[in-house]
Amino acid sequence: MFQTIGLWCLSQKGATAIEYGLIAAGIAVAIAASVFAFGDDVYNLLYDELPEALNR
To answer: Can you say how many angstroms the Cα of residue 32 is from the centroid of all Cα atoms in its chain?
Structure first.
């Protein structure tokens, strides 16, 4: 049983999938932080300031 657990811990299968998963999670966190930080500014730019500038 210990030998099986040891082989499972040393196995490299799935390591790439885990790495890609961590990269995807990091990108998702970065996108969420950007939306949280700049969401109101972008909304104001697109829906308040831009239409006013186009109507001039």
So the answer is: 7
Going residue by residue through the chain (56 aa), what tens digit of pLDDT does each one get? 878 777 777 767 777 888 899 999 999 999 999 999 999 998 999 898 988 888 87
User: Residue 18 burial (CB < 10 Å; 0-12/13-18/19+)?
Assistant: exposed
Q: pTM score, two decimals?
A: 0.58
Q: What is the CA angle 30-34-40, rounded to 5? A: 160
Q: Cα 20 to chain center, whole Å?
A: 12
User: To 5 degrees, how large is the angle CA 12–CA 15–CA 20?
Assistant: 165
